[in-house]
Specification:
about 60% helix; globular
Length: about 260
């Protein structure tokens, strides 16, 4: 069972697998995904509000700077303590959300359908950490500028995340290093490298690692700790998933495609 926000249409009437897509195909699918269109449309509206009620230059820059600056910290905290926390699967109410926003992604890392975040999970957090501080900094215009900056940071973060899972080797060293660290998070040890575009918080809080520094693969890298024993006590995610997938995600994916 998958939570689908809107019925798929157009290019999204079929599934997209990043290990079988070109960069051109990714760009086409990315800009036609409903979540990205929602973020960009809301950013345009927010810019319009800022034009209608403009903040001072200093206030606008401060609101935008705060939104972008706090974005990576909020993402780090959410990724480490919520998405990789071991508490949401214990709740029948919260299990479907945890399954949709992260378990499915680690089970099928190449599935673009579950990689892109759902607006109903991202927008509330964005509003709290961009609109409220922006308003306190520079009124209505500051709130609008802060929200627009947060939305554009989200869209950028999502695209970089897509690139990290695409069968594509970035030529840019920053992108290549970013991809290597995220791939280690997915396929070697998920207890570190929680950043997507910014790993400074990993460095600060001691969760950053280079793969060579951890020679042994983490035991829960593919299941996030949701094992058969856990499922026996908290079966909600397993019931929604039709069981617990075993083994390397890429091999499971290849087997499913061949079937």
């Amino acid at each position: 069972m998958k939570l689908v926000e809107n019925p798929p249409a157009g290019i999204w009437a079929k599934s997209h697998w990043l290990n079988r897509m070109s960069l051109r195909e990714l760009v086409a699918a990315y800009f036609q995904h409903h979540a990205i269109r929602v973020y960009l449309a809301l950013a345009a509206v927010a810019v319009g509000v800022a034009i209608w009620s403009p903040p001072t230059l200093a206030g606008g820059l401060a609101a935008a700077g705060f939104a972008v600056g706090v974005f990576s910290l909020v993402w780090y905290v959410l990724h480490r303590f919520v998405l990789h926390g071991k508490w949401m699967w214990k709740s029948k109410l919260l299990s479907p959300t945890w399954k949709r926003i992260h378990y499915d992604h680690h089970q099928d890392p190449n599935s673009l359908e579950v990689l892109l975040g759902a607006p109903w999970t991202t927008l509330p957090t964005l509003m709290v950490f961009t609109i409220v501080p922006g308003f306190l900094i520079a009124g209505i215009g500051g709130a609008a500028i802060g929200f627009a900056a947060g939305l554009l940071a989200t869209a950028f973060n999502e695209f970089c995340h897509c690139i990290q899972h695409l069968s594509y080797k970035p030529k840019n060293k920053w992108l290549a290093d970013m991809k290597a660290r995220h791939m280690a998070h997915h396929f070697h040890d998920e207890t570190g490298n929680f950043g997507i575009t910014d790993f400074s918080w990993d460095r600060l809080f001691g969760t950053f690692y280079e793969r060579a520094a951890r020679p042994t693969k983490g035991p829960s890298v593919f299941n996030l700790g949701y094992t058969d024993d856990v499922a026996a006590r908290y079966p909600y995610v397993a019931e929604l998933s039709g069981g617990i997938a075993k083994g390397h995600p890429r091999r499971r994916d290849d087997h499913r495609k061949a079937a």
